[in-house]
Amino acid sequence: MTVSASDSEATPMRPVLSVVPAAPERRVVVIGGGIAGLAAAHFVATESRGTLGVTVLEAGPRVGGKLATAEVAGVTVDSGAEAMQSTRPEAVSLARAVGLERDIVHPEVFGASLWLGDRLRRMPPTVMGVPTDLRALAAAQVLGARSLLTLPLEYARPATRFDGDVSVGAFVESRLGRDLVETLVEPLLGGVYAGRADALSLEATVPMLFRELRGESSLLRAAERTARGGGRRAGARRGPIFAGIRGGVGRLPQAVAADLVDRGAVVRTDAVVRSLHRVDDRWRIIVASGDQGEVLEAEEIILAVPPHQASALLTHVSPSAANDLGLIDMSSMAIVTLAYPAEAVPPLSGSGFLVPPNQGRTLKAANYATSKWDWIAREARTRRGRDDALVVIRASVGRLGEEDAWQRSDSDLVSDVHAELADAIGIRDLPVDRTVTRWRDAIPQYATGHVRRVERIRSAVAGIPDLEICGAAFDGVGVAAVIGSARTAARGVLSRSGRAAAVAH
Ligand SMILES: Cc1cc2nc3c(=O)[nH]c(=O)nc-3n(C[C@H](O)[C@H](O)[C@H](O)COP(=O)(O)OP(=O)(O)OC[C@H]3O[C@@H](n4cnc5c(N)ncnc54)[C@H](O)[C@@H]3O)c2cc1C
Question: Is residue 377 very low, low, confident or very high in pLDDT (cuts 50, 70, 90)?
Fold first, then answer.
């Protein structure tokens, strides 16, 4: 049995080899080798066709940030993000562009449950917890009779007025009651943001629902319309809502980095950017690499680090952007992945379950990895032989403000998670292996006012020459949205370099 634990570091991977590019006219340094930085570098490198010199500087020992893989009982699993939204094109397109087309897969099972009281109940259809089918909601038996009876009255109630932004919790409570917020909205927001409904912004966390509410008094009708739209964006293929990658979404950053190196870019790990200075129309970048210090120069910078690190690097460059970035709260969590002998686990239904915070459990969510992803099920079978398969369950622990939950020792976390899984699903034996990955400052919290804050940050950054910023703090925390923000940043660099080239010739 092995237990691996680390702060934001799963299985260490070999640093990516770098090659020195031919001296191009303009140098672009991307700070941060998470998926935002790598994607931004990819767009710049591919669309400038080698005319820009691209260097990615990553502080950690591996690229990928919150995309990483680990092993449990010899089976590879994602220890960070495990699914990419495929109703928008960015993530799946990037995976295809770097040679992973044949490895893009979709979940085998759909539908999660809620762990309420003493049993699992099928989750009714919702948009971030707002029901889209009242009959299905009643059939799911997740709300009390009183709440259920009053819900249809909401269709006829006048619009709720609010000034500026409002929290999801306050708004949904004002329309549909506290019971529904606690039971349905909290677990979904906990799953995506590891955050709480009363703090998270309606406009920033459920933008499509927010848009439907313009000119629509009823939240239920707005949710129904949002669901009919399917959350699809232009360019997205129809089909499943989520995609994974055979071998783990954690392979995506490795593939992007390898492709960058093939194109002549430099990808460096263990390169911590300490400060940024604007000197004579150029950027001077102070980098610490082991016990060595180094100064790099570049014409363009793309800042793709989490908000507090971005705040520190912008302190002197843009105090106002630094201030706003520093005020974005981050939630932390732990992913506990357990492998059980298949015979110890009763048949599982759906992809997993969510747990509302008011249930007093350690678990926030559990995902049946071997049910959900065929590639994990195959690995689990081949590791132990067809007749001796494993069931792998990935549990997550910790929401904003629940520091005690994810910071407990590995053995406490594993034993609590196992006890609750045994209680919820009826597991009859101990796990044969487990792995724990802690993610400190994992997910930016889009608190009320976040959209205005992002506008202020972007406008301050736009006032600084040759600087772009991207990452999970801006246009959505999901992998696809983060890649979208990287595309926007790359466009800024490419349009300036186009102008610079036009001036030079
Ligand atoms: C446990 C977990 C599960 C998730 N599950 C999903 C999911 O299933 N689906 C989904 O769509 N999203 C999911 N997410 C969200 C998604 O993974 C992240 O929002 C996204 O990967 C963030 O990418 P990023 O590049 O913006 O930031 P990061 O991944 O944080 O990358 C930033 C990088 O910058 C580096 N850095 C920081 N400071 C410096 C410096 N000074 N110099 C150089 N480098 C620096 C860091 O080391 C890091 O590698 C999950 C997140 C977590 C934590």
Answer: very high
Residues 316 and 342 grouped into a single domain: no
Ligand 1 near 397 CB (within 6 A): no
275 in the same domain as 352: no
Same domain, 453 and 324: yes
Residues 375 and 103: their CA atoms lie apart, in Å, by 10
Question: Do 176 and 195 share a domain, yes or no?
Answer: yes
> For 133-150, b where at least 16 C-beta lie within 10 A, e where not — what string?
bbeebbebebbeeebbee
Residue 439: CB within 6 Å of ligand 1?
A: yes
Q: Which atom of ligand 1 is nearest to the CA of 271?
A: 43
Q: Does 309 contact ligand 1 (Cβ within 6 A)?
A: yes
Selection from 406, 389, 388, 387 nearest residue 397 by Cα: 406
Q: What is the pLDDT of residues 95-130, one digit of tens each?
A: 999 999 999 999 999 999 999 999 999 999 999 999
* Domain-located, residue 82: no
Using the atom order of ligand 1, give the atom closest to the CA of residue 60.
47
Ligand 1 proximity of 34 Cβ (cutoff 6 Å): yes
User: Which of 194, 229, 264 is where one domain is finished?
Assistant: 229
Closest CA relative to residue 450, chosen from 329, 356, 364: 329
CA of residue 220 to ligand 1 center, whole Å: 33
Pocket of ligand 1 contains residue 472 by CB under 6 Å: yes
Asked whether residue 128 is domain-assigned, the answer is: yes
Q: Residue 398: give the domain boundaries.
A: 330-444
Cα–Cα distance for residue pair 375/432, rounded to 1 Å: 20
Question: What's 186's domain CATH number?
Answer: 1.10.3110.10
Cα–ligand 1 centroid distance for 66 (angstroms): 4
51 part of a folded domain: yes
Q: Does one domain contain both 201 and 260?
A: no
Minimal CA–CA distance to 91: which of 373, 481, 472, 372? 481
377 and 422 both lie in a single domain: yes
Lowest mean per-residue pLDDT among 48-57, 399-408, 444-453, 493-502 = 493-502
**What is the predicted pLDDT for the residue at 502?**
56
| Number of domains observed in the structure of the chain | 3
Minimum-distance ligand 1 atom for the alpha carbon of 477: 19
Helices (H) and strands (E) in the chain, counts: 19, 22
The predicted model scores a pTM of 0.93
For ligand 1, say whether the CB of 204 is within 6 Å of any of its atoms.
Answer: no
Pocket of ligand 1 contains residue 134 by CB under 6 Å? no
CB of residue 483 inside a 6 A radius of ligand 1: no
Q: Are 358 and 180 in contact (CB under 8 A)?
A: no
Q: Are residues 311 and 334 in the same domain?
A: no
Question: Ligand 1: distance of its center to the CA of 343 in Å?
Answer: 36
